[in-house]
Amino acid sequence: MPASAKRVLITGAAGQIGYALCPMVAAGRMLGPDQPVILHLLDIAPAAAALEGVKMELLDAAFPLLQGIVTSTDPAEACSGVDVAVMVGGFPRKAGMERKDVMGKNVSIYAAQARALEANASKDVKVLVVANPANTNALMLAEHAPSIPPENITAMTRLDHNRALAQVAERAGVPVTKVKNVIIWGNHSSTQYPDVSHGTVDGKPIREALKGSEGWLAEEFVPTVQQRGAAIIKARGLSSAMSAASSACDHVRNWLLGTAPGTWVSMGVLSDGSYGQPKGLVYSFPCTCKAGEWSIVQGLEIDAVSAEKMRATAEELAEERELALECIKEAAA
Ligand code: NAD
Ligand code: LMR
């Protein structure tokens, strides 16, 4: 019997990532090749005409799995009955804006949309926050939607994870599928810690497979992955969109359908204190997934250099949380 359609919300659907993500979801890259979908596309009123254009193109592409398209500028309507919510909508930082100005705007968006999700989405909705600051937006969403189980709210660091896999594969001269188990620890920002200590190339530890490249691993690999978003903005004049959309599909697909045996992926999830990282932050950890549930991989050995980098990115997340809470207090005053 054919599966019944799942409803997937994409916020900011008229934006760059939305435009790349909609066809990927409609083609089965997110929920699998046999899973029909109904897309719920949300954007703000000034983008309503562009949103209708996206809908027209989705119809014209005649995707076999696409069973319906809801477009809306009303969060309550867009969230109605959704099984998966990919939160891409928000304000990017513009020239002359302080970090706090962006944080203030996005925190208010995430607080409002948290309530819309809570009131209207499926009770088991799985939420992926992509919009920056992704980890802290996810945390604020969780705080404003207390009836959504906190484990159902995650932030995207899969793009960083994929970037790390690709860098190692290029260096080793192998297809990216041969590289496994890199880790992104912490924030989706330049303080993230891309860690190869437990990764493999064709089953061999990365450090062994890249013997002779110790200098590259120590001095080039980490900053390249940390700064890749900025490098793409510099090259394109726009932030990453196709790779972000593809990584959002990877994140949700692994979460719902599972990770391959012996492998893990990086996900921003609510810290339970694993590896000494503070509880109550949305922090990126190595995770395995099975049937819609993720678990943090336990028992990995952490050396002193790694521990310091993991602490530094947690410190930035703690500062972001304070800033976000301040913004919420100011907005309520
Ligand atoms: P964009 O500006 O092209 O699109 C954002 C869309 O959000 C626009 O269509 C805008 O109208 C819409 N929007 C604004 N406020 C909204 C609201 N309240 N409700 C619904 N929609 C709203 O930006 P983009 O390039 O698509 O990037 C989107 C976000 O993703 C940015 O915050 C960007 O920094 C972030 N990003 C994250 C990652 C990651 O790996 N986590 C990677 C790339 C980009
Ligand atoms: C990325 O990693 O490509 C983006 O988060 C960069 C950005 O600041 O939008």
Task: Tell me about this structure.
The protein is α/β, with parallel strands linked by helices. The chain folds into two domains: about 5-155, Rossmann fold, CATH 3.40.50; about 160-315, L-2-Hydroxyisocaproate Dehydrogenase, Chain A, domain 2 (Alpha-Beta Complex). The protein contains eleven helices and 14 strands. It has a six-stranded parallel sheet with strand order 3-2-1-4-5-6, with helices on both faces. A three-stranded antiparallel sheet has the order 7-10-11. The longest helix is centred in the last third of the chain and has 29 residues, at about 305-330. (2S)-2-hydroxybutanedioic acid (LMR) binds near residues 229 and 232.
A few lines on this structure:
Helix content is 44%, strand content 18%.
Layout: helices, strands, pairs:
Elements: E1 6-11, H1 16-26, E2 37-42, H2 48-60, E3 66-72, H3 75-79, E4 84-87, H4 99-120, E5 126-129, H5 134-144, E6 153-155, H6 158-172, E7 179-180, E8 183-185, E9 193-195, E10 200-201, E11 204-205, H7 206-209, H8 214-226, H9 228-236, H10 242-257, E12 265-270, E13 282-290, E14 293-296, H11 304-332
Parallel strand pairs: 1-2, 1-4, 2-3, 4-5, 5-6
Antiparallel strand pairs: 7-10, 8-9, 10-11, 12-13, 13-14
The structure holds nicotinamide-adenine-dinucleotide and (2S)-2-hydroxybutanedioic acid (LMR).
(2S)-2-hydroxybutanedioic acid (LMR) is lined by residues 132, 159, 229, 232, 239-240.
